[in-house]
Design a protein that fits this description.
Elements (H helix, E strand, L loop, with lengths): L2 H5 L23 H25 L3 E8 L5 H9 L7 E5 L5 H4 L5 H4 L8 E5 L8 H4 L5 H4 L2 H14 L2 E9 L2 H13 L9 H7 L2 H15 L6 E5 L3 H18 L11 H12 L2 E3 L5 E3 L3
Parallel strand pairs: 1-3, 1-4, 2-3, 4-5
Antiparallel strand pairs: 6-7
The protein binds adenosine-5'-triphosphate (ATP) and magnesium ion.
């Protein structure tokens, strides 16, 4: 079964995250057996990105969400480093700035959605406005509870404009999170990644799971599906996400655009230039003067 089918949150369906095993690795036992598949996907992704960029008719938005230390940065590093930077953008969403906070919650995201031909990755996203905002009561329930429908409408607008949207929850266990915090503590080069808030947020795990479940149930749609990716094993996470992105790009029917110029004319000009001649207004070759 493809990972699109295996990990998609069926639109309108129920989600029970505790039924999902974050350590799942399918038929793979180790990074070694998964690695050739990941490499194959990365190669294909890069070819498809070339077509997306050349065609400049559609775009792809990849939303990455996770609890702390879920591996969003790793996905971006491993899966997008081989892409052409010209058609790829990454935006991280942190606490809204003063300016951002004076607008509606979708404003800062709308400013950064991909242009035609581009792939854009959101490292966190407008979903924080129904996750951290809900868990910490940053706005009243009567405000955040309306946001699911607003998000669906927003994603519909993007989709109608040629943007494919795929959304990933990188799902790790609390034990794996603690282990990753420990690595950040033990490794001086990763100390900067740890914060007090990581430990206090961890206590709110059940509230985050509840918030994620509702977000997944209410906003997984045909035009913007959610995928829950077992992410305790980083290599399996990368395998599943790279396959889903590749298959999505394949489904988009990308092709090189037809040329807007007469190729025979251009070829004739090229040959004439090669022989030191030019083509006059009547289409005849003549010796270049001077
Ligand atoms: P890591 O997972 O590696 O720790 P990170 O994505 O958590 O990386 P941080 O700079 O640690 O990066 O955290 C960004 C913070 O901004 C998160 O705690 C997130 O919940 C918060 N944030 C994002 N959007 C909003 C929002 N709309 N309102 C309030 N907080 C937000
Ligand atoms: Mg953090």
């Amino acid at each position: 079964m493809s990972y699109i089918k295996e990990f998609i949150v069926s639109p309108g369906g129920k989600v029970q995250l505790n039924k999902i095993d974050p350590s799942y690795t399918d038929k793979h036992e180790s990074h070694e057996t998964a690695s050739p598949h990941i490499q194959e996907h990365l190669k294909r992704m890069s070819q498809l990105q070339y077509l997306l960029y050349a065609d400049a008719d559609q775009s792809l938005l990849v939303v990455l969400q996770a609890l702390d230390a879920g591996g969003k940065d790793g996905v971006i590093r491993h899966l997008f480093s081989g892409m052409n930077p010209q058609g790829t953008k990454v935006f991280g969403f942190k606490q809204p700035s003063k300016d951002e906070a004076t607008h509606d919650f979708l404003w800062r995201a709308h400013l950064r959605v991909p242009s035609k031909g581009d792939i854009t990755i959101f490292n966190r996203s407008y979903y924080e406005d129904v996750l951290v905002v809900r868990v910490h009561n940053l706005v009243e329930k009567k405000i955040w509870s309306k946001r699911y429908d607003l998000i669906n409408d927003f994603e519909k607008i993007l989709s109608n404009n040629g943007t494919r949207i795929i959304k990933f929850l990188l799902y790790i266990s609390p034990e794996e999170q603690l282990e990753r915090f420990k690595q950040r503590l033990d490794d001086p080069s990763r100390n900067w990644k740890i914060s007090d808030a990581d430990y206090s947020e961890r206590e709110l795990w059940p509230k985050y799971i509840e918030a994620y479940q509702e977000a997944l149930e209410r906003t997984s749609t045909h035009h913007a599906p959610w995928f829950v990716i077992p992410a305790n094993h980083k290599w399996f996470r990368d395998l599943a996400i790279s396959e889903i992105i590749t298959d999505t790009l394949e489904e988009m029917g990308l092709k090189l655009p037809s040329t807007h110029v007469n190729m025979d004319d251009i070829r004739n000009k090229y040959h004439a230039a090669e022989q030191g001649q030019s083509i006059n207004a009547n289409g005849k070759t003549e010796k270049k003067s001077g």
